[in-house]
Amino acid sequence: MPPVALVTGASSGIGLALVQHLLSLPSPQWNVVLADLNSPPATASLPPTRTLFIRTDVSRWAEQAHLFRAAFARFGRLDFAALNAGIDDRDDIFHSLDDGVLEAAEGGPRRPSRRTFEVNLLGVYEGVKLAAWYMSRAKPGSSSSSSSSSSSSSSGPSPVNGRIVITASSAGLYALPAIPQYTAAKHGLVGLARSLAPSAARAGITINSVCPAVVATGLAPAGLLDAFPEERRTPMSTMMRAFDELAALADFEQGEGGDGGAWGDVSKAKNGCTVEVSLQNLWYREGLSYPDEGQVYMAEAATKPWNDVYRARNRAFAMRDWDQEEEAERAKTKL
After folding, report:
1. What angle do CA 81, 311, 264 make, to 5 degrees?
2. Helix 123-135 and helix 180-202, axial crossing angle in degrees, nearest 10
3. pLDDT over 90 percentage in the chain
4. Rounded CA gap, 126 and 307, in Å?
5. Distance, CA of 67 to CA of 75 (rounded, Å)
6. How is 236-247 classified by DSSP, letter by letter?
7. pLDDT (tens digit, 9 = 90+) per residue, 69-123?
8. What are the tens digits of pLDDT across the range 249-286?
9. How many CB atoms lie within 10 A of CB 33?
10. CA 299/CA 266 separation, integer angstroms
11. Best exposed site among 115, 199, 213, 223 by fewest CB in 10 Å?
């Protein structure tokens, strides 16, 4: 059974280019699930036997859960997830403080739109949770268990069960004052990938982030790309190199008879990497260095206390039905 990729924001820009890149690889022959609010263009000529499009608003948990469930039902496995969907800012703070606006908005400002955070940050977090769940399910023809704990306790090398790549942005590394919502969310994605990586590795999953500079996509509002001459734009081919390096897309080895398949030992795979993609270059960016012994102790020497305190508590949180609890809370407030 061929490996399966799932790409969000797949109908245009970086997402569509990645879909076409996956389908063009001579080996392995990927099946690809496309998720987007809009259908892919007919000009993409996607082979119906190897692709599945599911209209999805990634800011809605129920729709993303349906996406992953339907993908697994169709293809029986999930090996690679590119969480790529994103939008730019939907609010303003300081440029809306001129006299005309202040006079017209007596009683205070209107509630800001949270959509940028819901799509770019919360939707990605939920996508990681869903991807990890389905990647950990036993794959057809594979002897691996659906339980990550059993694989981590075995004496041999831990296989890679799946790879996740998050599309962050160079705005996740530098301040971009024109779009602070986008900048904050993309900074969050870089931190998310770095902080999840150690736990992901224990489950046989890698998670990395790509931080593209200016790439010619539909995300840019009209007129913005005009300010960037061709030689200052990052080619889509450089983006595909970044996905190839982080997810080893061409290195997946098919099992005998087309079943199973794997990438090898997770300890040797790229994990927790932040790759800035600019022009023809891939720059691997490390996190900040610690300024003193106190910070070193907090982040490294005290790892066990952090884990001891939070792991069991957060596992308990993960088992709670938050929809039900929030509905009950809303019912209380109506009484």
Report:
1. 40
2. 20
3. 69
4. 22
5. 12
6. HHHHHHHHHHHH
7. 999 999 999 999 999 999 999 999 998 887 676 766 677 888 999 999 999 999 9
8. 998 876 554 455 667 788 888 999 999 999 999 999 99
9. 25
10. 23
11. 223
What does the block give as tokens for 203? 């489950």
278/212 Cα distance (integer angstroms): 6
- Output the six-digit token pair for 107: 């009683």
List pLDDT tens digits, range 182-207: 999 999 999 999 999 999 999 999 99
Q: Which of 260, 249, 250 is nearest to 1 (CA)?
A: 260
Give the relative orientation of helices 236-247 and 13-24 as an angle to the nearest 10 degrees. 60
Q: How far apart are CA 209 and CA 112, in angstroms?
A: 28
**Strands ordered across the beta sheet of 4-8:** 51-55, 31-36, 4-8, 80-83, 162-167, 205-212, 274-278, 281-284
CB distance 92 to 182 below 8 Å:
no
Structure tokens at 147: 């339980």
The two three-digit tokens of residue 130, written as one number: 């869903």
